[in-house]
Inverse folding.
């Protein structure tokens, strides 16, 4: 598939001397929802800010739909909408004026019908005459999204869109993002909420300490790195692990009623058949058994909490 954003060897060292990005290479596919996942301070906002032309890269380059974001700044910027992490709005403007004005900034002719559509989609229509200062935090965030969409961008960046927002707005936002994808808009969101990446994204990039440590299809990521656990609930508690079961690296629960077997879901043989045979030979009866796939959260934690290298 053709990529809509190409990030090539992008590094960023701030004036303070701090290196926030280390030679990041990344391609975003046209029409996908891409989640950039990483802990606070990983470099997510820095990367987005570079693509949106707010921060200059120290090296490397970025193409947005084939356009160099530095050489052809205006053209690149007109393709892109950004909902920043921090809310910035003019308190005394009305919602309607704020959003319409933003469209004008990109040199697009006025289109009240389009603005109306956007405001309705975001449940802002009833508030169109309200001044920004009269809006709740959640409503302000909706206006930020409307602003970002005002010039009909083909690429939308959402920087921590749901940090601190209520459940309703989060749900509306996810619905809106899916709707945008149906219209062919490419959506890149940053988040440190794993559930958000898990729920929303087609692909996930994990960034940690300025380095992109992984980019994968979400499902493949969960599968590829996922370990499965098999929980065996025993009919009669064990006081210790029988020696013949040692090779399976089982964990015996404290009460002795449960054995946990961890295996790689991708290995040809899981070892489960051997394990069950072994248990049967020892006359250990099972009450129940369940298997569980690692969640993205467990994968993420294992990636991000690697010791400093
Ligand atoms: N203007 C700046 N000057 C110096 N350091 C900065 C600046 N902006 C961000 N940083 C540092 O760069 C790192 C990455 O920040 P940021 O991109 O905001 O991370 P994230 O969005 O993933 O939380 C952090 O350690 C942050 O303190
Ligand atoms: Mg950030």
């Amino acid at each position: 598939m053709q990529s809509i954003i190409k990030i090539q060897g992008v590094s960023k060292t701030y004036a303070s001397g701090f290196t926030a990005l280390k030679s990041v290479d990344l391609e975003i596919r046209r029409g996908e929802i891409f989640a950039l996942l990483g802990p606070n301070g990983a470099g997510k906002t820095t990367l987005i800010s570079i693509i949106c032309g707010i921060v200059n890269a120290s090296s490397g380059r970025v193409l947005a739909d084939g356009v160099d974001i530095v050489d052809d700044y205006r053209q690149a910027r007109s393709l892109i909408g950004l909902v920043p992490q921090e809310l910035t709005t003019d308190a005394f403007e009305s919602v309607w004026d704020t959003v319409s004005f933003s469209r004008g900034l990109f040199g697009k002719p006025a289109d009240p019908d389009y603005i109306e559509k956007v405001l309705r989609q975001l449940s802002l229509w009833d508030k169109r005459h309200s001044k920004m200062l009269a809006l709740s935090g959640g409503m302000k965030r909706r206006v930020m999204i409307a602003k970002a969409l005002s010039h009909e961008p083909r690429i939308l960046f959402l920087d921590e869109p749901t940090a601190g927002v209520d459940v309703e707005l989060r749900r509306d936002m996810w619905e809106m993002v899916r709707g945008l994808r149906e219209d062919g808009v490419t959506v890149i969101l940053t988040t440190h909420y794993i559930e958000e990446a898990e729920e929303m994204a087609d692909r996930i990039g994990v960034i940690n300490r300025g380095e992109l440590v992984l980019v994968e299809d979400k499902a493949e990521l969960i599968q590829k790195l996922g370990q499965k656990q098999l929980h065996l609930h025993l009919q009669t508690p064990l006081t210790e692990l029988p020696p013949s079961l040692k090779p399976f690296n089982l964990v015996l629960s404290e009460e002795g009623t449960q054995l946990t077997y961890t295996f790689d879901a991708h290995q040809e043989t899981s070892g489960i058949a051997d394990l069950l045979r072994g248990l049967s030979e020892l006359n250990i009866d099972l009450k129940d058994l369940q298997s569980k796939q690692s969640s993205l959260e467990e994968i993420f934690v294992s990636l991000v909490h690697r010791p400093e290298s």
